[in-house]
Design goal:
With about 325 residues, the chain is an alpha/beta fold. The protein has 14 helices and 11 strands. Helix 3 crosses helix 11 and helix 12 packs antiparallel against helix 14. The protein is globular and about 70 Å long.
């Protein structure tokens, strides 16, 4: 049964009341973070939409600081895994340790048992280690020995990739990249922002502490509310059209880019674009999704789900340009 205008109005009021914690969260994180609002908002989209995030950016852009500050502000457990070529899956998920005194094995849980896991330079780890982490992300559980252990909620993996160095790296296969809800590309801060960073790091010896201002319970309630945000059938068709335009561009008047795309977005792209759009509506304190929510997050959902052909690479055409053309071609409801 379709919701009435009164149902949507009541839901909108409920969302406005429930999303107040976002202001507290942003204020607390901004005590130590300068700029990077785009990255913070995308982290919140992943958190509210129950999806993981792949971050790409050069070193020194406060990726670690951002997720650590967010976990402190939410009073959640944070862990950081620095991926290297000599790692084993046990270094991520944990292993069985033999105790000689007690003559038995016991489980030592790995760093994946946390609410916020920063997987630093995930493309430096071999395939077995990447698979162990991605399995934990997908199943929200880990098997060590004969026992299966559920992971704590909320569980958010922020994996980073350094686009500069490709020596000694193991790029994530396309099927594994698809497990991430968003791929966020981080740029340099603005000149004025970097001046503030300069002053903070050369004048102050101790940075302001980040205090817990949001409970895990509030996050769990917000996640349930995000699912109930109203999405009109026209918006659903718009999301479907955007994803289908990456698969069959000629059907949407985009015949010129058909030779440039080797494969388009999977059904996961449709699901994640829908959830991310609802999360964007929640961030904007609305109980319903509008086309601007979809357009704002579309590039982050699609950029790791579209494959470029050799022809596109030869012509120096980027994924961003393809997505821009798709957004311009598909009719907005």
């Amino acid at each position: 049964m379709l919701p009435t205008a009164e149902d949507i109005r009541l839901l909108n009021e409920r969302i406005q009341m429930s999303s107040v914690f976002l202001d507290r969260l942003r204020t607390e994180v901004n005590k130590v973070l300068v700029g990077q609002q785009y990255m913070v908002d995308r982290l919140l989209v992943g958190l509210l939409g129950n999806g993981h995030i792949l971050l790409e950016g050069v070193p020194g852009l406060a990726k670690t600081l951002t997720i650590k500050s967010l976990s402190q502000a939410i009073n959640a457990k944070f862990s950081r895994i620095q991926f290297t070529p000599d790692m084993l899956p046990a270094d991520v998920i944990g292993t069985m340790i033999y105790n000689q005194q007690e003559n038995k094995f016991f489980v030592r849980k790995g760093p994946v048992f946390a609410n916020f896991v920063l997987a630093d330079e995930i493309n430096r780890a071999p395939a077995k280690v990447q698979s162990a982490l991605l399995e934990a992300m997908q199943e929200k559980q880990v098997t060590i020995g004969e026992h299966t252990y559920p992971l704590e909620e909320p569980f958010l993996v922020l994996a980073t990739q350094n686009p500069l160095e490709q020596e000694g790296t193991y790029p994530l296969p396309e099927a594994q990249q698809d497990r991430f809800m968003l791929k966020v590309v981080i740029g340099y801060p603005k000149k004025e922002e970097e001046q503030i960073i300069l002053r903070q790091n050369t004048q102050q010896l101790v940075s302001a502490p980040v205090n817990p201002v949001v409970s895990i319970r509030e996050i769990a309630d917000a996640r349930h509310l995000v699912r109930s945000i109203y999405m009109d059938e026209k918006i659903e068709h718009y999301i479907l059209d955007l994803v289908f335009a990456t698969r069959y561009p000629d059907q949407y008047g985009l015949g010129s880019i058909k030779p440039l795309i080797s494969y388009g977005g999977s059904p996961r792209a449709t699901i994640n674009l829908s959830l991310a759009s609802k999360s964007m509506a929640f961030l904007n304190k609305r109980g319903y999704v509008i086309p601007e929510d979809v357009r704002a997050i579309a590039a982050d959902v699609l950029r790791h789900r579209i494959g470029l052909t050799y022809e596109a690479e030869a012509e120096n055409i980027s994924i961003e340009e393809i997505i821009k053309q798709v957004l311009n071609a598909v009719k907005v409801p």
